[in-house]
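User: Please write out a complete single-protein record containing the residue sequence and its fold in token form, without commentary.

AI:
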Amino acid sequence: MADSKPSIVVVSDVCGQGGGAYRVTTLVCRALAELGADVTCFATWVEPGGLQETEPFRIVRPWMQRGYRWDIPNRMLAVQAQSFIKRRQPKAVFVVGLTRVCGHLLAGSVASRLLVWELTNADKGNKFVDPKAAKLLHQSRGILSPAESIDAGIRQTYHYTGTIQRLPFWIEDEGLPYAEPPNRFRSDFLFLARREDDKGLRELIQATAMLVKEFPNLRIQVGGHGDAHPYSKLAKELAVADSIEFCSLPSRQDAMVALAATRYLVLPSYHEGYPLSLLEATQFSIPFIATDVGSIEEVFGDCSACRMIPSRDVTALYNVMKSCLSETDMDYAMRRKAANRRFNELSSKSSVDSRLRQIIDHISLSDGRSSQHQSAP
């Protein structure tokens, strides 16, 4: 990126500090800006209070923010982004996720400029993937993927045969050293994800009902976005309402405070791509329970901080939670140290910057070759 302030465009349906695509969009915009790029982010929805006024990139919202039933905001944003790309000719265009706005762009005249960053585990029937975008992936410049397991899903599920480049997820390195266990934990287990069935929340409540018979003082915190009512109702039906606290944790800071004060993070999802919450746990030296889905086994399978189980298996979840509560202080400390080591291995800012530079240099190189080919006699 030797040019003076090269223009780069990032397009996403969401932007902010929440989980998943919200956070990923913000992080990639910041990282590109810190590399010296003039970054413009086109986002359909910006999380209220999720961004600072001093962010080093511009945000463009849809001209019309009504009519979600007819997908008008996403269509409008795609038109705005396409017009901007044609006019400004940015050095690179990143599209975060196979969303509806991605599908509209892939169907348009700038499709061959787009680098699409797949965030999920690319399995069939994925509710976060727009079918139109998946069918038009071959129109893009290439795909970015955070893990080999997701590469395989992109090839098999979408029948994509083009270029895939690696861009793993990361979080801000807050420079936290290894953290010794506190004298007292606020919770034994923290669930920090969307409150939905596919995140395994029902299984967690059912496993809790089995555990309280042996650990009557068990404390579970359930954070994240989404309706708590169906799950608080289940907790009452299973007589564990006193053991489970449903907390809003409205800001990232609130979530990180809760994370730092728990014994274990628990994420019993049915499917995941490359969940940021596990990276956040490792930064705070917190071990975790996770299911063997998506790229989790690839990234954390050899790390003792990760207690891995099959998805949708209440008995397995109960057994590993029981094991967590029964382990020795020495074993627990070992898992915390392993978590801290894995964060240092995975979330290196210099490594992220290097990958982004390589991706953009690859664009420049291929553009140069294309130009030479076109000008050849």
The CA atoms of residues 271 and 293 lie 5 Å apart.
